[in-house]
Amino acid sequence: MFTASPSLLALIGTSTCPAGSPEHIQRAFAQAGIEVATFPVEVDAAGLGAFVELARGMRNLRGFLVTAAFEATAAGMVDERSPPAAAAGAVNLVRRDPDGRLAGDRIDGLGSEVSRAQADGIGRFLGMLDAARPAQPPTLRDHLSEPTPAARLLGREILAVDAQAGSASLRFHAPGTFGNRHGTVHGGMIAAMLDSATSCAVLAGLPPERTSLTMRLETRYLKPAALGMLSASAQVVERDERRALVEAQLFDGAGVHVASAVGEFRLRDRRV
Q: Quick one: pLDDT band at residue 130, thresholds 50, 70, 90?
């Protein structure tokens, strides 16, 4: 049973190219413990823009799924895109925030059949999971569980780490005090975020008695970074007992790739 005013999720498509089956999607959401009413919206390419603008004012619309035919077009209509969506230049999931802003994401393999894992991912992106089952934070090694003062200054949040793969996904917050004379994020703060991201990828795979020291960080600035939320991904590309080499990318809130870096680290025993 739904509440009197349920959260809505629209399925955007046409009769010849549907975005998905409401019944299958509804079933997957129910299994994930997500209360949402899914409904199809049949529009053509010419009507997509009108629907997107209408969606901004629909207060109980949590978002919409987009058929493959409209993914690229919809990517240009949202206010911000996740790194995967920005890299693909396409979105198949859009979240409506309370202020009417639209955030786009991309979930691989999303089609007429939605798996339990995909429904869970959709729910987390839309903020619709049951409060009794909150998102679980990543399991962190001892040296990552407590953020350093510098990490707190950067507003760092570790979203995911993979010790075996040597990878990390993070989020940062750049307030107005991080701005330069042009009103974008100062280059030094961008370098600090990339240094933090590369360090996390290394530390994720080290035992508590080992640590890392930055020996070199080569930063490449690609585009001005807007103030606000930024996200980063980092991947260890080489590692032995004494040294690690890590690559990282930084994206602004709109999913624009603003900077990248290569970090070289010395690995040693932690000193008490």
A: very low
CA distance 102 to 32: 24
Q: What is the separation of C-alpha 241 from the centre of its chain, rounded to a whole number of angstroms?
A: 32
Determine if the pTM surpasses 0.90: no
The length of the chain, given as a count of residues: 272
Half-sphere exposure of 183 (CA within 13 A, CB side): 0
* AA identity, residue 135: A
Neighbours of 220 (CB within 10 A): 10
CA distances from 263 to 110, 159, 192, 198 (A): 35, 20, 11, 6
Residue whose structure tokens are 């970074």: 225
Farthest-apart Cα atoms in the chain, separation: 66
Above 90 in pLDDT, residue 199?
A: yes
CATH code where residue 175 lies? 3.10.129.10
Where b means 16+ CB within 10 Å and e means fewer, 150-184 reads ebebbbbebeebebeebbbbbbbbbeeebeeeeeb
Q: Domain boundary at 68, 99, 126, which?
A: 126
CA angle 69, 73, 77 (to 5 degrees): 140
DSSP lists the bridge partners of residue 102 as 96
Q: What share of the chain is helix, strand, coil (3-state, %, to 5)?
A: 30, 35, 40
Kindly report the three-state secondary structure assignment for every residue of 50-67: HHHHHHHCCCCEEEEEEC
- Residue 87, φ and ψ in degrees, nearest 5: -65, -35
Give the domain range for residue 198.
142-269
Structure token pair of residue 245: 């080499």
Return the H-helix or E-strand segment holding 151: helix 149-153
Number of structural domains found in the chain: 2
